[in-house]
Amino acid sequence: MNYEVKVDVSPIYELLSSFMVYISKKWIRNLDIGPEWIGEVSGKLPPEVTSALGPAAAWPFDDYDVLYAWAIHRANGDTVRAFLDCLHETPAEVLYEAASPYLPSLTVKEAERIRDSYTPLLELWYEHYFKHEEPAIIPLIEEDAEEKCMLLTKMEPHSLVEYASGGLVVEDVPGLETIVLFPTVHNRPINVYCFYRKMMLIQYPVDVPEEQEDEPPTCLLRMTHALADPQRLRLLRYAAEKPRSLDDMMRDLNQTQELLKHHLMILRVAGLLRIHLGSYNTEKFSIRPDGAAELQMFLESYIRL
User: Fold this and answer.
1) Helix 92-99 crosses helix 108-125 at what angle (to 10 degrees)?
2) Strand, helix or coil at 36?
3) What tens digit of pLDDT does each residue of 106-136 get?
4) In angstroms, rounded to a whole number, what is the distance separating the alpha carbons of residues 217 and 221?
5) End-to-end CA distance of the chain
6) InterPro entries attached here (predicted)?
7) How far is CA 46 from the centre of its chain?
């Protein structure tokens, strides 16, 4: 595990994350904001904006890897406005040179397409949605990033990655030199990761204060929902023996890939699984030991034992 960890924070990441969630609707049923968020936001956007954003749903999902690479290597400050102005003004060749060391398959033509296609849509997203959310989000991500920076001086890099992400274990990935951690709100409670050449990006979820103290906390509801299904309990027991791959599970549990991915996602967002990331972006899953302890803690705290 010979890599360094950096903690980064900027509303630029949250702009891209919220845009990606709205456009792709990826993982939306497993996110705290829920599917209803899509309808709520669409209802507030002018029809011409909704119409302009629509075609982006069919664009390659890998485009976001390029956008995040540009965000990581921003050179003109942390503000969204400065980032969007930079995309407007920077030649495609320069943007290509910034991202190509991490994305060797990127071409100048692709960099130009992504810049020209996404910049006007990100402008619309910022003006009609994100800038209204930004003031509430910035204190949350800045406070969390400050905590993680402090922990970076006290914890081993791999331990901080697992703690921040709630279960990502980055093992022996050939050539990996740097992991960039950044906090996000819209993707809660999912950690999203992306491998680049020599670098890995991990979006980890920020803890958001509960609005109503008398209601069961969201984290407790996630856990009890995950444990309410006998198949998921059996899956946890199976994964407790040793890290298991999806192929292992399909073979030994006699379940389809689609069904297993569904159960794994629910257990993952509940904080009950560790994801071991190894060479060639392989994934294995094991039970997260802290999960059971956290379940007891949240349950006892809520019912006031």
Assistant:
1) 100
2) helix
3) 999 999 999 999 999 999 999 999 999 999 9
4) 6
5) 41
6) ArsR-like_HTH (IPR011991), HTH_ArsR_DNA-bd_dom (IPR001845), WH-like_DNA-bd_sf (IPR036388), WH_DNA-bd_sf (IPR036390)
7) 28
Q: How many CA atoms lie within 13 A of 115 on its CB side?
A: 26
Q: DSSP code of 278?
A: -
pLDDT in tens, 224-252: 999 999 999 999 999 999 999 999 999 99
What is the distance between the alpha carbons of residues 161 and 173, in angstroms, rounded to a whole number? 14
CA 117/CA 58 separation, integer angstroms: 12
How far is 253 from 249, CA to CA, in rounded Å? 5
Query: Which SS3 state, helix, strand or coil, does residue 200 take?
Result: strand
235 Cβ contact partners less than 8 Å away, ≥ 6 residues apart: 249, 253, 260, 263, 264, 267
3-class secondary-structure state, position 176: coil
**Closest C-alpha among 123, 126, 118, 120 to residue 59:** 118
The DSSP call for residue 282 is -
Q: How many CB atoms lie within 10 A of CB 112?
A: 15
Contact 216, 43 (CB under 8 A): no
Band of the pLDDT at 203, cuts 50, 70, 90? very high
Cα 23 to Cα 304: distance, rounded to the nearest angstrom: 41
User: Sign of the CA dihedral 129, 131, 137, 142?
Assistant: positive
Q: Please, where are the H alpha helices in the chain?
A: 11-24, 36-44, 47-53, 63-72, 80-89, 92-99, 108-125, 131-152, 157-165, 218-227, 230-241, 246-253, 257-269, 289-303
Q: Look-up: residue for tokens 């968020």?
A: 37
Range of lowest pLDDT (54-68, 128-142, 161-175): 161-175
